[in-house]
Amino acid sequence: MGELEIGVGIWSLQSTKAGPRHFAYLYKELMEDAAFCDQFSTIKTIWQTEHHFWYDGYCPSLLTVAGGIAAATKRIRIGQAALLFSQHEALRVAQQAAVLDQLSGGRLDLGLALGYRDNEFDGFNIDRRIRRHRFEEGVEIVGRAFADGPVNFAGDQFDVPDVEVTPKPFQSDVPIWVAAVGPDPIRRAARMGASIILSDALTLEQLRHQIDLYYTCAEEYGVDVSHAKMGVLRRGWVAETDDEAYREALPSLRFLLREQLGGWRYLVDEKGEPVGFDRPRDLDAAADRLVNVHERTIGRPEKVVRGLREIAATGCTHVIFGTRFDSLPRAKYLRSLELLATEVIPNI
Question: 325-346 in b/e burial notation, b at 16+ Cβ within 10 A?
Fold first, then answer.
């Protein structure tokens, strides 16, 4: 079993029905949270996530936020889980990411996702059907922009005629992560040789299967992925006792999962039909199943250590420990992070 890294997140800056907040406070608190996490060397990365045109103000501008985190911290790496790359101009992302990497002294982990919500693509006047082409061409452009020399690229979606991107990133090789939900994105990530971020909905058996699929595909493509990290999002909460952790976290986690499952409609039934708010019984059952998946990483430190060891045994090498529920008292949330950093991670 290899070494397991722990990052924290995912900060989405939402003012939800369960925890309505003024956005000025949410963004200010993120900077404070980042500085708090930065003092613990055991926490490797802080992760943010992006969406657009949702009622609760879900963070729409990850690299802007990441710049604030860079200024508020000195050590911790800064990751996107993930930037909805198909909805952006690839060359502009490359420029902003390079500036962020310089600003942070080489602490950027650039996480990219395909995106899937129709109204996000409609809002940006982008045909959802071409998102894969935009993603793959965009990754090629970013790679060329980060390398020495000018970018010359002529594709179906982007045309970049002989431009030099400066500054280059601080890092000689910026880590690229791909949010991989399903077999096709996993194959795409393996072909790229990118690290992956797997879904929070996966059981341990499913997690192991998808990691195995990644390595099988990389071998088929002849890609060296020895440097790649296998990441997964797991919701978690650490308290002094199991009872305290369950009492604090489970109601908020269930509300959060139900709202996101219903609103984003990213889970489907056996017929491939989305499970949303129009199917409340199915939605409740789906939320309960997800709570059960995450229950292994909710509890006293010793229990959470065991849960993380089980995840590491699947071949996973990086866990985004999702302690940010947005509806729990701040003092308890910071205590959970402290216990994670001081009592859990050192004992994995």
Answer: bbbbeeeebeebbebbbebbbe
- Using an 8 Å Cβ cutoff, are 315 and 212 in contact? yes
Most distant pair of Cα atoms in the chain: their distance: 61
- The domain of 328 spans 5-347
DSSP 19: S
pLDDT in tens, 69-111: 999 999 999 999 999 999 999 999 999 999 999 999 999 999 9
Query: Residue holding tokens 């789906």?
Result: 286
Q: d(Cα 157, Cα 90) in Å, to the nearest integer?
A: 10
Q: How far apart are CA 47 and CA 78, in angstroms?
A: 6
The domain that contains 101 carries what CATH number?
Answer: 3.20.20.30
8 Å CB contact between 297 and 246: no
DSSP 293-327: HHGGGEESHHHHHHHHHHHHTTT--EEEEE---SS
- Contacts of residue 38, defined as CB under 8 A and 6 or more positions apart, other chains included, come to 72, 73, 74, 75, 76
Q: How far apart are CA 241 and CA 299, in angstroms?
A: 6
Q: How many domains does the chain have?
A: 1
- Decide: pTM greater than 0.90: yes
